[in-house]
Specification:
alpha+beta; coiled coil; Nucleotide Exchange Factor Grpe, Chain A, domain 2; 4 helices; single chain; GrpE_head; 3-stranded antiparallel β-sheet; disordered C terminus; Protein GrpE; 3 domains; 3-stranded mixed β-sheet; 6 strands; about 50% helix
């Protein structure tokens, strides 16, 4: 009789253990599916944001071009020419609009790529042109054609930039005569400097 009771108890314990194992398995699957669903929801949201906001990147580029043009116009002062009245306020307006635009982008964790006067970075920039620049290191961005944007480490749009390269050194072969010391060289004529 005692063996029967022990057998029933062991069978009941095994049954409870099986139910518990099934519950744990069900809970594990439920947790995995819930996490997958949350990740899917986040991916859909980010892709929708990315597609929606990408259309506004050109608007920011236009604001930046307008700001740069207004600053350039404001800086052109001469004896006979004066900048248009109120151009400083226009520049401030462009700057405020750009700052508000950047705040709106930062709410979606999107940041503009810093480009001007920065070393060229092939991960976030595309060089559309190189220019020979005196006094500027090789590989420095000297002009931004269109801005780039990143979210975390993901590049949403590469910045299109103009990159500097150093002037090529003048090389002389043994057949060519060296320039006279008292005559200005061709580079001195171009820059208007005598050393």
């Amino acid at each position: 009789m005692q063996n029967r009771e022990q057998h029933r108890t062991v069978a009941a314990l095994n049954s409870v253990k099986n139910v518990t194992d099934e519950y744990e398995n069900f809970f594990r699957i439920f947790k995995e599916k819930t996490n997958e669903l949350a990740q899917l929801e986040q991916n859909i949201r980010q892709n929708c944001e990315k597609k929606s906001v990408a259309h506004f990147f050109d608007v920011r580029d236009s604001l930046v071009r307008g700001h740069n043009a207004s600053v350039e116009i404001a800086s052109k002062k001469g004896f006979f020419t004066r900048p248009p009245k109120g151009i400083e306020k226009i520049s401030e307006g462009y700057e405020m609009a750009i700052n508000r635009f950047d705040k709106a982008l930062s709410m979606m964790d999107i940041d503009p790529v810093e480009t001007n006067q920065m070393p060229f970075n092939s991960e976030t920039m595309k060089a559309v042109e190189t220019r020979e620049m005196h006094g500027v290191e090789n590989g420095i961005v000297i002009e931004t054609i269109s801005g780039g944007f990143i979210r975390g480490k993901e590049v949403l749009r590469h910045a299109k930039v103009v990159v500097s390269h150093a002037p090529e050194a003048i090389s002389h072969t043994h057949d060519e005569p060296l320039p006279a010391l008292d005559a200005p060289s061709s580079t001195q004529k171009e820059t208007g400097k005598n050393e």
